[in-house]
Amino acid sequence: MAEVNPPAWMQAGSYPARNDRLGAISSMLCYPGFAADEATPLRIRQGVKPSYQNYQLKVRAAATPNMTVIVSAGFAWVDNHDVGGYGAYCCVNDADKILTIQPSGAAGQYRKDAVVASVYDAETSGSASEWRIEVIQGAYAATAGAAVLPALPNSAQILASVAVDATVTSITAGKIADMRNYTVAAGGILPVLSNIYPTRPHPGQVMYLTDADLFVYGRPDGTVAPLILGTGAGGFARKSGDTSRTNTVAMSADPHLSVPVATNSTYTVDAYLIYQSGTLGDFNVALAGPTSSDGSWSAVGYGRDVPAAVATQGHTIRMNPNNIQSVQPRSYGGDTVDETLHLRGILRTAGTAGSLAVQWSQAAADATATIMRTDSWLRVQRVA
């Protein structure tokens, strides 16, 4: 088969439901975005319609927990996986659906059940022609950790998993794990978790990583790059007031100069620091990032304890992995007039999110305050 004829909605045309599914539904939905889907180009990304607080087809516990779960109203699009190229189905639930979870039966028996939106089409498999919200029961296991999800019907979208413990008498919210995919029209912004987003989105496909508050987009080479939007993409911090510190060499974060950073990312770092001290206190500075971060920075500023003619110098340090807070600070000279420090560097984060912060103190404890001035700034930009 090549061209699918007649095209949907042709005047006086007569055609099977498959043509409508392909023309009116599948052609309008976004591309799945995984390498395996290149071999079946008529596939779509199936899933649930996103909404505020993602309430559509959400599986939740009963108000007074019992052996049921409730599935909210909503829309889902489910692809036909019985036969390639047969299009996606639009499935609508217009009210809460109550589903019964079977008890585990006895001590030492644990299960993991799946709540799914399943499509059955007698044209491609079996005898039923309907869609169902249903529970697929998992196999029993000796421990909760050994329980696994059951095999799902061919054309199904999983909505949630339900942990069924031994001798359980009610399903609480903590036993329900949300497993919905979301899908949007082609060109729409796709909400998705950062650990399961499509690895090969089409060029220009924008995705919102819901757990990282970060936007990314597909590039022509099949990779993904961040947009400069949202927490974790970097940002800019400016001091809105002076901060003074006296009689201390204890390093601590500046109250204004920090920017949130995401996990497993690379950032460039720039800072422009304006400070003043007496002739003895001077200025210590360091960068502090989340646990397991790594990177380096250098700064050009007024040298400490060197002749004025060679006072401008740079320092490069490595931020210790696993505990950046313990990094050895670098010392710079100060005076009774404002001095500036120009800092540039790179930061690589690992599995912990947090903030990159400027830490500072006096280089020598002195009763004359060392002051970080208003309008000092820190800029962090994600590049990978």
Give me the count of strands.
26
Q: Which band does the percent of strand residues land in?
A: 35-45%
Shape: elongated
The chain-level mean pLDDT equals 87
The N- and C-terminal alpha carbons lie at a distance of 43 Å
Radius of gyration: 29 Å
> What structural class do you assign from the helix and strand content?
mainly beta
Estimate the helix proportion, in percent.
under 10%
Task: Describe the main β-sheet briefly.
Answer: 8 strands, antiparallel
The succession of helices and strands, N to C, reads: HEEEEEEEEEEEEEEEEEEEEEEEEEE
Low-confidence stretches: 307-325
SSE order and pairing:
Layout: H1 17-25, E1 47-48, E2 59-61, E3 68-71, E4 74-79, E5 88-93, E6 97-100, E7 111-120, E8 130-136, E9 156-164, E10 176-178, E11 190-192, E12 206-209, E13 214-218, E14 224-226, E15 234-238, E16 243-245, E17 252-261, E18 266-276, E19 283-288, E20 294-302, E21 312-319, E22 330-332, E23 339-348, E24 354-361, E25 370-372, E26 377-382
Parallel strand pairs: 11-12
Antiparallel strand pairs: 1-4, 2-3, 3-6, 4-5, 7-8, 7-9, 9-10, 12-13, 13-14, 15-26, 16-25, 17-24, 18-23, 18-25, 18-26, 19-22, 19-24, 20-21, 20-23
